[in-house]
Amino acid sequence: MPGVFASVSLRLRQWLLSRRKPVDSWTLTQRNIYIVPTRAGLAFCLTVLLLLIASINYQLNLGYALTFLLAGSALASMHMTHASLRGLTLHVRPPAPAFAGDDAALEIIVTNPGAARHGVGLAIEPVDHNPPAFAWADITAQGQSSVHVAISTSRRGRHALPALRAESRFPFGLFRAWSVWLPAGQVWVWPAQETPPPPLPEAEPVAGNQRSRNEQNRSEFDGVRAWRRGDSLRQVVWKKVAHTGEMVSRDSTEGAGHHLWLSWAQTRQADTEGRLSRLCSWVLQAEAKELAWGLRLPGQALEVGHGSAHRDAALQALAEWD
């Protein structure tokens, strides 16, 4: 019977989640906060009931006083547990991409318009029988607090954000108040990197390339271009900046006779995921070395370039490869 009850409860939760629409922010109100007694709360209620029966049976005035004192404390606890969540507003910052198999960090901003809240937990709403892993925090009064939750990633691609659960058992743990929110947003999961990272392939010569000048006739400022957004500080020619005051960067493709192409055929892996993992490692290596590189996949190609935008475009293409 416990297994049947757990299975029915799981199916009911999944059905309720499927009917929700993703929203950017979630304000906790009386309409979307649920509260039930915990196991400790049920045991406490049973204890109070036994005290009441004993007090009636033996006509104990002090027993009546203790019984109603405990019952009043439980009712006050229920009100405080519900008030720990009521009025809070949640929204999620866009998550940073993660590699398949690693956890993606999800930052949740909690806005509190009232007094300080204690014992507020946030977790990914479970889709199986495993209990949620809560990140507990105290929310400052009339301010904002950030809570970080880890998202498990197993498949590459672009995925919708999972449902989140906000929960509180403050102050005595007799009652559990919670609310479920389906945030709007997506997280990129890039292919897993190959370890250890393989060496980069050889650069390919550019067809028809000719040097217009001998190397000894080049000036110290040859091979530079105007600074572009995304260029690293190591590419900036600071000596040129000091002379002219103009921000310029080294052009790694200027006068070069070879281009580095990272192609599907060069991976020499048997399975698709292995090829994608190797290409992912190559992309990160080429970008770390500040090389100009391009990506070739069956049916599509990313022209030679460099920079964080170029890297992200390549990794997204690998993540969505089918």
TrEMBL record:
<keyword id="KW-0472">Membrane</keyword>
<feature type="transmembrane region" description="Helical">
    <location>
        <begin position="64"/>
        <end position="85"/>
    </location>
</feature>
<feature type="region of interest" description="Disordered">
    <location>
        <begin position="194"/>
        <end position="220"/>
    </location>
</feature>
<feature type="transmembrane region" description="Helical">
    <location>
        <begin position="40"/>
        <end position="58"/>
    </location>
</feature>
<protein>
    <submittedName>
        <fullName>DUF58 domain-containing protein</fullName>
    </submittedName>
</protein>
<keyword id="KW-0812">Transmembrane</keyword>
<keyword id="KW-1133">Transmembrane helix</keyword>
